[in-house]
Amino acid sequence: MxxxxxxxxxxxxxxxxxxxxxxxxxxxxxxxxITTKLDSKSGDTKAVAEDGNKITSxxxxxxxxxxxxxxxEERKMADARITEVDATGSATIEFVVEGAxxxxxxxxxxPLSAAKDDCTDVKDAAELLxxxxxxxxANLDVRVGSGTIQIAEPGLTVTAQPVALFxxxxxxxxxxxxxxxxxAKSLSVTIGNQEYVITSSAATDxxxxxxxxxxxxxxxxxAVDGDKRTWLFSAPSVSFTAxxxxxxxxxxxxYVDMGTVTIAxxxxxxxxxxxxxxxxxxxxxxxxxAWGDPVPYYKPGHALDNPFDASNWKEGxxxxxxxxxxxxxxxxxxxxxxxxxxxxxxxxWKTLDSDLFICTWVSDYxxxxxxxxxxxxxxxxxxxxxIFLPAGDIWDDYGSPNLSNPSCxxxxxxxxxxxxxxxxxxxxxxxxxxxxxxxxxxxxGASVRPVMYAKASESExxxxxxxxxxxxxxxxGSGxGSGxGSEEDPGEKPVEGGGDDGKIVQEDDSF
Length: 511
Description:
This protein is mainly β. 5% of the residues lie in helices and 40% in strands. The protein has helices at residues 13-16, 125-128, 332-337, 346-351, 456-460, and strands at residues 5-8, 48-51, 54-57, 64-71, 74-85, 91-95, 104-110, 143-150, 155-164, 166-175, 184-191, 194-204, 206-212, 214-224, 230-240, 245-263, 266-273, 357-362, 372-377, 386-390, 408-416, 420-429, 432-441, 451-454, 465-468, 503-504. Strands 10, 11, 12, 13, 14, 15, 16, 17, 24, 25 and 26 form an 11-stranded mixed β-sheet that branches. The longest helix is centred in the middle third of the chain and has 6 residues, at 332-337.
């Protein structure tokens, strides 16, 4: 490993500044020089930089570290400045200790700003990662080690080399099929109950972020662009280690925050997907599903105008009828999109028929030629936010959807008995808009619009290594330097995240 040399220079600043020593409990110290060896970060000259598909993290002149130690009854912090970095990557550090006894344990924290103000330890991850700007210019590399200061025979014994506390991610934001880059002004990353916010100075489709190591945790990414459009991606069970560099493509689904509603006496924040399940655009009909069955009965590219052609149906299916019905009880949105998406309940749909929203029938949405229901939030922090429900009609006893005079038919998660489920319906008849809920046979084929809940207060307050959050691997290199990996070490085997959205591949190279 490369060497990092520490030189301690002590001086009697108390007497130089005309102040009196604090008694005999802490003796005056003569200037001493202490030299020790630490693993270098790497052999480059920049503190944190991307080199192709690698992250290099190296010492740099005028960087500062904290040496935390006990002096009598007082916790102290020495400001260690890097004065020189030689061609081998070794660094010389100068700092002063006062009042330390022989064999005094110390904590080495990099950078200096990462140390707690009370000089006891490194700051908590929540504090260190609270204000990231999405670039590598921010110091995303936080390291902690430990040692013992010798006074009788000057020296510093390093008992634990400084190691990285976080993983560094290069996050590339894309739409759900990966074909379009999404530009975000901010990205919130929620791990368990802790949220980390990355705020960029300008909208961008690439953000760098430092995150703490996790094992089997749910991780959610919530992006907002300059026009306040919002996207979400969630992985149910993710694992990654600190000291690694990851490149990950987040294939995100757009949603609209429709604000706080009250359901059964409880305030909830409803967030609606902008597209139906199986659709690419808000005006696309998407797929049709029997209630509780996440597999459409027709073959891809089915002919709506000829539902009686047996070649259009999958094996064992003759249409959306009881003969074809294979009820599984699945929540279609959750089954196909994953957590936190789900089918709206009957009560969720009922909230749209209230004074909180304005519902308008649109005959040609955004020149798409598609009619449907436009729902807009009337007031509050989410005033003006809207979703469009294309009128894709329904597969029923009469056959295929009637798209010449269509109605909206959207499943809820609510059933009545064994054969009936609740639909949200809307249609225009003789110039009059009607919408509400009705019960139909569960075997019929209708649309699904996913929804998710967030905390009500949110509305009221107005890769190097490849981490494959959503099952689509990116070609990425690995980090170089120290911290647990080497060219001779092929590293860990692939780790499964526990769900379709949580696959991780690691090769155990560190930055």
